[in-house]
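User: Okay, second chain of the day. Same drill as before: sequence in, structure tokens out.
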Amino acid sequence: MVDDASALIEPIRAASRRLVRELGFMRDGLAGVDLPPSAVHALLEIEARDGITAAALSGLLGLEKSSVSRLLRKLVEAGEVAEGPAGADGRAKPLSLTPRGRATTGAIHGFARRQVAGALERLPQARHRTVTDGLRLYADALAAGRDAIPASPSVTIEAGYRPGALGRCAEMHARYYAREAGFGASFEALVASGLAEFSGRLDRPCNGLWLALREDRVVGTVAIDGEHLGPGLAHLRWLIVDDGVRGGGAGRALLSAAVGFCEAQGFDAVHLWTFQGLHAARHLYERQGFVLAEQRPGRRWDSEVMEQRFVRPVAKSGSEVVGPPAR
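Assistant: Same drill. Structure tokens below.
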């Protein structure tokens, strides 16, 4: 398997370079508009996540905050983007498109759709899904490795509560989602209050908590709430891994421990709620057999997002999971 992967590295690199060139990233006027590639992507992300903050946009684009700040200043001056009033923390300003910005993104979408449609017309219809799945899986794999580090001390998984674990869970959520989605104090309070309520039920057999530990420090958490959704349904909550260990397998280990607990407890299915745009997390869920069951706009977490519910049927003793296999 390693040898097969090694043989594909150079062809994938060559294809990636060709893709960059054919999409127009080497030319001025990407997607038919007089804007640099970073500005095109910024406009599309702001359109998709109305109210996103500069910090969250920086994480999505993989750019330094200072670079995003300069980029946004130019887009605001050009009349493409508007900044809303600062939030409760006095710093996070929600971003939205102006009418001019919406017209620009409309032109970008039109150009890109014609480009994609033209390419698909040159391929047999049977290969269309191959293109879609291949690009998505490759992009997800690249995203999953963005925060990976070459080597780190070993991480162990421990079941059950230990002092400070709930506080660390709330802290890791607050820091990560402030950067990725611009969530603020009300989100942190929501996480903390949920954990406080759950802690009073943690001793019941249908509920569980798992911690990822590195050098005796909590660097990841996940919980199964067996009461929150009703009989036979497990609610997977508070899956988070600290920045320094993300990409090293701690998230997979935590998720596997939680799913194994659900199988042992005989739940019918596991549900989790997240929101659109967290590509690495979605890839992790899908590898464990979770499938997207529902999505809808929501404002529970400081700003409007596209909430998503993923479901995984649980294998009974001596039987197999019924549903799509984990990829």
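The chain has two domains: 2-122, 156-313.

User: Thanks, on to the next one.
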